[in-house]
Amino acid sequence: MSDHLYEQLLATTTGLLLLTAVLQVWGRSVTRAIRLLAIQGLALAGLVLVVGLHGGERQAPPVALLVLLVKAVAMPWAMARSARLIDQTKEAGSLANPAVELIGAAGLTLLAYAISGPLLGGQADPAAQAAPVGFSLVLLGFWQLLIRRSALTQLVAFLLIDNGIATIAFLTSGGLPLTIELGVSLDVLLVVLILGVLVVRMHEEQGHIDITELRELRD
Amino acid sequence: MTPDRLAALVDVGLLAQALLGALAVLFAVVVPRRVRNAASGSALVAVGVAGAITGVAALLGAPAAGLRIPLALPLAGPMDPMLLAPDRLGAVFMAIAGMVVALSALFGIGYAHGAAASRTGWTAFAVFAVGLQFVPAAADAVTFLLAWELMAGGSTVLLLADHAVREPVRRATLWYAVMTHLSFLLLLTGFGILAAAAGGTSWATMAGAGLGGPVAGVAFVLLTAGFATKAGLVPVHVWLPRAHPEAPSHMSAAMSAAMVKMGVYGIMMVVLRLLPEGPRWWAVLLIALGAGSALYGILQASVQSDLKRLLAYSTTENVGLVVAAVGIGVLLRDSGQDGVAGVAFLAALLLAVSHAAFKTVLFLGAGSVLHATGERDLDLLGGLASRMPWTATAFGIGAMGAAALPVTSGFVAEWALLQALVHADARADRLVAVVMPVTMAVVALTVGLGLLTFVKALGIGFLARPRTRAAADAHEAGITMRAALAVGSLLVLALGLAPGPVSVALAGAVPAGGVSTVAGTGLVLDAVGVVLHPVGLTLLLLAILVPLVVVNVVLARRHPRRDVGLAWGSGGERTSPRMEYNATSYAEPLVRVFGSSLQATRSVEVVRHEQSPLLVSQVAFTQETVDVVEERIYLPAARRAERFGDLARTVQNGSIHRYVGFSFAALVVVLVVLALW
Fold it and tell me: CA–CA separation, B183 vs B25, rounded Å?
């Protein structure tokens, strides 16, 4: 793989990651957010493959396949199933209006670019230079956690943070060994499955999945 | 036995205590309810006896190799191995703890009921007992603090025993838990400073570093504050009058007679072993703390009508005297009077041993009364002497000890303290010239008030006629309880009658020379040139008393007693129980004299007859005394803490978004700070 092609592929995949994240903040449809999550998983798998192949790692294809299966297929499927079961396709409402949401997202992306330079040091490697995308994903995920009310969107936001962390890991250290990636991915998958069930139960018990209503403190 | 054999015995004894403690826990957990008291209690008696034997062996023998605790702690910095190896001072306190644990456990076999007899109850007692006996055996700070926390944890759990039945138990436990943690934190900081400055955690390293200056000063203040909290000295005594009354009585005895002593041990260890070159203000601080506690404690005790609360305040008094004695020793040592200083240190140990003996008896006696009548309010007792002769006799001996009357241990101990005070040479040293007379006055006042207090406790509680049905229906305690009371009283008398051998042994634990024994039992203090021979004195007294009693009896036989009826009694009784002196009325003059420092509030409620306002149908009198320290210092502090807590409540309101927002803000701030660094 030539350097030029490598940079092009890197830019494409990371750009796709950032784009899907911003679109997730922008939109209000839960089903669309889940679809975007699947695309994001695809982009992440591509990123893993590109970085791994360029680095000459033989484990790259299986890791990429794993990421693809877990993040682009299994998790979106589980979440879409939960959403279908409780018939929730639209976000109930946001705590901020769309303009504020997007301005906040833009500000956080800028912040991510501003801080990742000093944090990671001036590395010439194009992969390391793309690392701000990972930081953006983490911050945007947090931002969604803050402004959204539906438990399903919270879950999407949580996965966005996870994707961000994975992106940073792949871009800065050239990827994780297969076993560690396997462990982390399956953990997250388990969390998604459990929370998916929880969301369904919550809807059954209370008739809504708005977490702002959950504020009774218990000892 | 040779010193080396004794040292080997110490090693075996340490191991035996740990194993027997584990056995007690095992019994507590697996043995069925019926025999649990007997099984677990007996194992704990064995733990106590093993502790007492180990303590005595360590006091008389050569330094033992000790018991290594094979525990790897992931601690950074210089760490000496964790070791249990009592030195002579520790040995004294280990023997005290063992003796008290054995007696309380023996008493507990018959006494423990309800939650105190549960699996948790006995397990907690076992953990407490082992921790208590290992505190003075620890040879390094980490082991010490570990044992200290075992002791604190076990006692807290056992203190909670009756929490389901009585509300004050919960409050008392809260106070105790807070104060005991405060104490632990102070100790941790203090030992941390010493360990950092000396480059090691073992006592030997700390003592060998020859620390001085501000570092030693700060460590001394922190450690003294921490140990004072455990010892129940004013102003950190507040947990004591709450926890002792609410704990099961065998536990009160163990806490008051042994656990509180660990605070004393700590203070003595710091000034005698770890930092022996302390400046004079340390001594003045200790004397002020001790004398203040002694006076305040006995003053509060003298006006209490709750028997166990009275005993708890009296503990503050006794511990105050011990610490004052230590302070006097340090001051005299500093002014070059090593001989008299040794007498003061010896007096401190005698006071500690004596207090352990008589306070065990008193608390166990109070437990026996509580067991028999369900009451601990002196105003509702009375007439127990004829119904509970064993308990009454034992309590009487204990009360004599607490009032420092002759033929008991209390007398010997306070006599030694007064010898040190009297024989201090004040001519060369102005500070000594000021401190000694003031301390002597305080000790004298304390002894006087102590006498009043225990005359009240014994007289109102056990003599006269029963004031309530419960007191009239009282029954004698069971066999194990009586055995514990009898052994305890014998110890009080033994130390009072034969102070010589005990003092000679104790003198080996502190820098006190010239202590010897005369005629097998008497005590000779060469440093100050005095002799105490209680057996001789007792024989002399008997020689005078016996003819008197004989004459009296003979005369009484000759003139049989006549019943004199009341002249205008219309067949009524001479006195009814309601006309007797009770605890409140007995202490009334004291409340008047010391009114301002006791802050007593009284109210008299008169209920008039419906038909005529001139006729009174009922008069009720209530009197409450306030713990001034608690009122002025602790309650405002607690209120302020609560206000701070309310502030925190406005920050957290249960909204998940708010919590996520906090994390998010923290993350952004950290990232920005890292980027700007």
Answer: 27
Angle between helices B307-334 and B409-423 (to 10 degrees): 30
Q: Among all residues of chain A, which has the CA nearest to that of B659?
A: A146
Strands B601-608 and B616-624 come out as antiparallel
B656 vs A135, A139, A214: nearest CB = A214
Over residues A59-65, the mean pLDDT reads 85
Query: CB contact, 8 Å: B668 with chain A?
Result: yes
| Residue B655: closest C-alpha in chain A | A215
Token duo for residue B167:
């509300």
The pTM of this model reads: 0.77
A5–chain B nearest CA distance, Å: 31
| Structure tokens belonging to residue B183 | 């104490």
Which residue from B657, B668, B676 is facing A95, i.e. has the nearest CB?
A: B657
Contacts of B654 in chain A (CB under 8 A): 214-217
CB contact under 8 A, B671 and A216: no
Per-residue pLDDT tens over the stretch B8-18: 899 999 999 99
pLDDT at B135: 95
Over residues A134-192, the pLDDT tens digits come to: 999 999 999 988 888 888 888 888 899 988 988 888 887 765 667 777 777 788 888 88
What distances in angstroms separate CA B601 from CA B380, B443, B622, B623, one per listed residue? Answer: 20, 28, 8, 6
Average pLDDT over every residue of B124-149: 94
In chain B the first and final C-alpha atoms are separated, in Å, by 70
Helix axes A75-86, A151-173, angle to 10 degrees: 170
> CA gyration radius for chain B?
27
CB contact under 8 A, B668 and A95: no
Domain ranges of chain B: 290-532, 628-676
Name the residue facing B664 among A95, A135, A142 (closest C-beta).
A142
Contact across the interface for B660 and A146, Cβ inside 8 Å: yes
* Residue A219 confidence (pLDDT) above 50: no
More confident residue, B196 or B75: B196
Within 13 Å, how many C-alpha atoms sit on residue A6's CB side? Answer: 15
Integer angstrom CA distances of residue B512 from A75, B62, B409, B617: 79, 18, 19, 66
Residues in chain A within 8 Å Cβ distance of B677: 118
Q: Which residue has the tokens 């194993």?
A: B19
Dihedral pair phi/psi, residue B195, rounded to 5°: -65, -40
pLDDT tens-place string over residues B188-202: 999 999 998 988 888
| DSSP notation for B61-95 | SPPP--EE--------S--PPPEE---HHHHHHHH
Other beta carbons less than 10 A from residue A91's beta carbon: 17
At B167-177, the pLDDT tens digits run 889 999 999 99
In 3D space, the residue among B542, B539, B541, B511 whose CA is nearest the CA of residue B527 turns out to be: B511
Please list every residue in chain A whose beta carbon sits closer than 8 Å to the beta carbon of residue B657.
95, 145-146, 211-212
Residue B256: other Cβ atoms inside 10 A = 30
Report the candidate in B332, B316, B227, B314 with the shortest Cα–Cα distance to residue B274. B227
Residue B377 bridge partners (DSSP): B306
Contacting residues for B90 by C-beta, under 8 A, at least 6 apart: B58, B136, B137, B138, B265, B269
CB atoms within 10 A of CB B624: 10
Q: Calculate what percentage of chain B has a pLDDT beyond 70.
A: 97
Taking every pair of C-alpha atoms in chain A, what is the biggest distance, in angstroms? 60
- Percent of chain B scored above 90 by pLDDT? 53
Cα angle B667, A26, A32 (rounded to 5 degrees) comes to 110
Paired with B624 in beta bridges are B601
> Hey, are the CB atoms on A212 and B657 less than 8 Å from each other?
yes
Candidate from B655, B656, B671 with C-beta closest to A115: B671
Closest CA–CA distance from residue B183 to any residue of chain A (Å): 28
Check CB contact under 8 Å for B661 and A146: yes
CB contact under 8 A, A215 and B676: no
